Amino acid sequence: MSPFAVDKRDIQFCLYEYLDVERLTKFAKYAEFNRELFDMVLDETIKFATEKLAPLNTVIDRQGVFFDKGKVTVPPQHKQAYKEFCEGGWVGVTAAQEHGGQGLPMVISTALGEVHAAASVAFLMTPGLSRAAAHVIEIYGTEEMRKIYLDKLISGVWSGTMCLTESGAGSAVGDLKTKARREGDHFLIEGEKIFISAGDHDMTENIVHLVLARIEGAPAGIKGVSLFLVPKFLPDADGNAGQPNNVLCGNIEHKMGIHGSPTCTMVFGGDGPCRGWLIGEENEGIKYMFLMMNEARIGVGLQGVSTASASYLEALQYARERIQGVDIAAMKDVNAPRVPIIRHPDVRRMLLTMKSFTEGMRALLYFAAFAADLSEASDDEDERNRYKSMLELLTPVVKAYLSDRGFEMTALGIQVFGGYGYCQEYPVEQYCRDAKIASIYEGTNGIQALDLLGRKISAKGGLLFMTFLMRVNDFINEHREHPSLGGHIQKLERARDQLTQVVMHLQQAGMQGDVYYPVLWASPFLDLFGTVTLGYFLADMAVLAHKKLSAMEGAGTPEKQKQLIAENPEARYYDGKIHSMKFFIDNYMPHVGAVAESIMSGNKSPLEIEF
């Protein structure tokens, strides 16, 4: 098994060369930061992930978690790593410093999260949910809630969850049955939630559940759902974990992957009164929970990138070392030397597929996080609004497209390994198992597709879509005639045109009263949208890489540039960015036309067939 690897060079390219995240430090919110500090935190994150989390990942996958008499425990190594993670301040990297956080930009936190998740997706689940729960309390909670809970959640002394799903209310969350009955200054919560990540464990002194429930007499559906803060243990007068609050774990799920993250059935008020405190206004729970959900959806996209990257780096190293067969040109020579499988064309195609998708996915993920930062920190109102619009549009794409492609890249990693990839001796099979859940939780990818097509594309009169489309248009118009890359950018232009045609086609169907047809094609549409989006980011980065490569000393002629690429790692890196774009555009932009033709075909067979 090769050592845990991180693509630090590409992370830094995305952060500093492509996005120029250092410009955030010009704004008051991040004025105390600089690149030196960002790099220091990144290096510490890589060190912790390499030394602590990567070795732990196999342990918690094999051992999982333990359930006995309503209590969940984790392996001692998991508990110790969590303690050290909290001591390192990683739970609250983006939280306000006044509450014990580091106050880092979300884009930097996203890069750190990618590294941690690449080392262990399951481990990161608990602190990730705590961070999101703390943010909801910070924005919508009362002053007393903030005083009692924020510092403890951000430090990791307490952990947080979000409790939405019930056996009869998954994607249709408005059908929930959990009840809230008013009693003085609080409510009594009664109901059962399922599939609750980190719902119970022994890593923290207390667990703070954010629970969706319906107050007695509230309207049916999502308009009658409220959000409650329900601690496992009631805080005492000093703010420490006190008496039990009748929050019990009914059982844990036995899953395909993320074995180190306890997935629990939680019972509230099943063995006596369970107290909960209303967050915000009554019947506004969905709005408040969506703050947490949207953060979690970016986090799910992060999981797709991290597992894809980890799988690619493992497959690349294996392909360099694994000797099998001879060069294809020497097939008839029985005495030909055996070569590493990276010499075989099909393996090289798979590796470049993984490389190009991973780099494009990383750029999209980091851009979304950067947009979140700029939408809050910029001192220019137009810029804040522009990036807020793009973040709203891209959130379902980040969640769904990156999780789907992440799973596909892990499967491709197994294929590069061949039979060994299917065995537990190597980590790629675990990456694949851990990656699959990302397309299901935090809103299935089908729900994300409905959100993109049904809400985001048409929101504010199409403003969100047009804002991002204008960014793509500006790039195409500027570089359409690029001397080296213009042909590929023109292919991107055709794909963009096909995307806009599909948008108009589906909107027209909806305007004509056909409610089923757009929904039928929502998921293929999201894939089409995501492919065009990745094509744009890869092309944009390739133009920059071409400029950097051409400016390098010794790159004056094609022959000298070729020699430079062979000898200089930086030149080889920039050349690799260009090849990633060319491969993706040539091989995946044609898919856009095919999917567009399918969507506009008028076929309704899935609606018409009698199953």
How would you describe this protein?
By secondary structure, the protein is α+β, with helices and mostly antiparallel strands. It has a domain at 456-605. The protein is built from 18 helices and 14 strands. It has helices at residues 8-18, 35-63, 76-87, 106-119, 121-140, 143-155, 285-321, 345-377, 381-417, 428-436, 445-456, 459-479, 486-511, 516-520, 522-550, 558-567, 569-599, 605-608, and strands at 66-68, 71-73, 158-163, 179-183, 186-197, 206-215, 226-231, 233-235, 241-244, 247-252, 263-268, 275-279, 323-326, 338-340. The protein has a 5-stranded mixed barrel. Strands 1-2 form a two-stranded antiparallel ribbon. The chain has a two-stranded antiparallel sheet with strand order 8-9. Helix 9 packs across helix 12 and helix 13 runs antiparallel to helix 15 (522-550). The protein is globular, with a radius of gyration of 25 Å. The mean pLDDT is 96.
Outline the fold blueprint.
Layout (H helix, E strand, L loop, with lengths): L7 H11 L16 H29 L2 E3 L2 E3 L2 H12 L18 H14 L1 H20 L2 H13 L2 E6 L15 E5 L2 E12 L8 E10 L10 E6 L1 E3 L5 E4 L2 E6 L10 E6 L6 E5 L5 H37 L1 E4 L11 E3 L4 H33 L3 H37 L10 H9 L8 H12 L2 H21 L6 H26 L4 H5 L1 H29 L7 H10 L1 H31 L5 H4 L3
Parallel strand pairs: 3-6, 4-6
Antiparallel strand pairs: 1-2, 4-5, 5-11, 5-12, 6-7, 7-12, 8-9, 10-11, 13-14
